[in-house]
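Q: What does the assembly look like in three dimensions?
Context provided by user:
Components: two
Sequences:
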Amino acid sequence: MTAPVIATEAGERAQPPASAPRKRGRFSVHFAHYKWLYLLLLPGVVYFAIFRYGPMYGVSIAFKDYVPFLGVNDSPWVGFQHFQDFFSNPDFPRLLGNTLILAFLNLGIAFPLTIVLALLLNEVRLSILKRTVQTLVYIPHFLSWTIVASLSFLLFALDFGPLFLFLNSVMGTNIDFLSDPNWFRPLIVLQEIWKNTGWGTIIFLAALATVDQDQYEAAIIDGAGRFRRVWHITLPGIRSTIIVMLILAIGQMLNTGFEQIYLMTNALNRSAADVFDTYVYFVGITQGAYSYSTAVGLFKSLVGLVLIFGTNALAKRFNQSGLF
Amino acid sequence: MIRRRMSLAAAVVTATALTLTACGGGETQSADISTVNVMAPFLEAQPPSADGAVQKKLEELTGKDVNITWAPNASYEDKTNITLASSEIPHVMVIQGKTPGFVKNAEAGAFWDLTDKLDEYPNLKTTFPDIQQNASINGKVYGVYRGRAPMRAAVMFRQDWLDKLGLEAPKTTEDLYEVAKAFTEKDPDGNGQNDTWGITIPKWGALGTNSPYDFIETWYGAGNRWTEKDGKLIPSFETEEFLEANRFVKKMVDEKLINPDFATFDPTKWNEPFLNGKGGIIVDVDSRVSVLINLFKQADPNNFENKVGFVGNLEGPDGELNAHPTDGYSGFLAIPKSSVRTEAELKTVLEFLNTMNGKDVAVLLNNGIEGVNFTLEDGKAATIKPETEEAKAVNTDIKSYAQLGMNVAGNSFYPVKQASDYEQQVFDKRTEVMAEDLKSAVYNPAAPYVSATYVSKGAQLDNIVADARIKYLAGQIDEQGLKDAIKLWNTSGGDKVKEEINKLWQDNK
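A: Here is the predicted structure of the complete assembly.
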């Protein structure tokens, strides 16, 4: 979803000032005038045409009964049949529900935590401590999901995992976290927080650095405490960054992370674990139903598109600068 | 660096070409095929080198240039489909099974129908027509199947534990329960702690994949995937015996005779509890017996001979032996029509496959090169030790080349001579037990039949029952829940699968 956004930005930058052509026919003059700028734009346009828009031709198999031997062109056209099959499939509500619940949990918990962590880091005065903590919280981002999943399996292993033993003794229960469907989502969100929260703070920390220091001094003189300063100066100062990051996060929201979920799924928690991404893999790659799974993927993209436009419009309505 | 750039550029160009143009049909090959292009999977870390000794010998024996494209086993099916959509289609493709992707391509006419052609070639004429029939799509043979041992189900257990507790090797499922119970409760390792269990089962859900659950269900008389009842074929999970078998397994789960994390336990660690003295029984294919013995041998070369015991299939509660056979084949070698265009070309390729299936090539693909990596002792291939550099390369390569073996008329290569007398004894006993069990094999009557509905959503359907089976065993749902899942299988499209399979079965009777 980020790709078209960049395209728009690039396009805007290359556009001439508002004093451009008043009459028709002026365009050639205008073009001649700015030809070097247009030339600069060309590689970007070609890149997107070939690598982003060209492959979308393959999306047409969502409307066909694709057989690899026959190729994309010669496979029979079936229109919206795959979509109909999908919407009437008993799996559909479950998939949509699982995907949305996980997406909102991630957005509602992991996203604010990133801001909180950035604010906390920002308040640390001791430079060496701040840098050390920053480095430490970035590290998990560089571990692959396979390693994160293996760690989780070790920590939560039935009957001997340290966290399994600890949590169950605290709660006085005997829960197998790895196979209990009720614990699937908390585990996923926890992993997401552990892995990506630190990394996510980078942009917020950069934004925090731009907040005007004079305002803090003024606030201190006015007698504002730490929380007052955060609330009245810091947060408003990075509001536009938060909005942009939120819109971007919502655009990515339905990408619930195939690897992570695939690795944590088993027969016992599948009812909570099946999401669009894993479903597309199971049906498309392992069962060879390419057309059907493309249709599912296309539907997912459509939902993502609606979400991103919706948030953008909402942001504009509340007088914030949207993304586009 | 420059070379890498070039290949990257080439890859980009190809990718672009692939996305921008739909690559139909391949280039016309000359009728005389002198280079045979083959696509095959490899299971080792590295594919064999293209100028190795085995490759050279293969070209010498077949009189053709053989150009093999090795693709990693894990992504082989994707690669198959991508290859079929490209313009670089090989003359011979190893196909790993009747996957929906293959069936669709075959039915669209992507492969030669070899049903009436194979019998003309002495080495391609099968001596096991049933297996060839099983490997077909509704009776149409689209490839030369790759033969595999038809019987492999076994129960292996810690012999030292069994001896210590003074127990007999299990013969029936009831015995299995008794042994598992004793292994769990009677402290078989003698450390005074209650830290052992009976059977270890890993995360293994899917139906009909030779899992421990599948074996036990067949032993109970539920049939093998499909079973005949009142003149109709029904899936084995609709039988009363299926429920009985799972009640039996659930009883063992509830009494902690099975590892409690059976739904999540990593299959690659399956041997560990057995070796470490935690779980004393494994229900799996018989080749694991030798794997386990080998592992014990590595740990202690002087004391490994009394660790692993095994038996074959177990009798069910009714005293009958219902043995669980394999499909008897593992995919097939198919010939795509877009690269092999005429009957004359087909003949050349089939003659090539005929040579491949002869004794000389079979020995090369499976044993290696005599005098280099093995010598012949009493009709058995004995590995030459110490291993030379050259022999090492051959030994590594044949692990991949064996993927090209078909052996449709039985194995014509030499059996491997085992490293010690004890291991040879075990190997011979395995062969004997499996041959005996084969007489009581319960075959899948629907094996040759491919239903259209099953192709489009069979795996999803089967998941419903497979997941419910695990949930039932774990206590997440009760027996009614399991029955409801089977009902859901029917209403979600299973009814149609049954109808189609029965029609195909009736038509071909």
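Follow-up: Chain A touches chain B at residues 50, 54-55, 57-58, 67-74, 90-91, 153, 157-159, 176, 178-179, 266-268, 270, 282-283, 285-290, 292 (CB under 8 Å).
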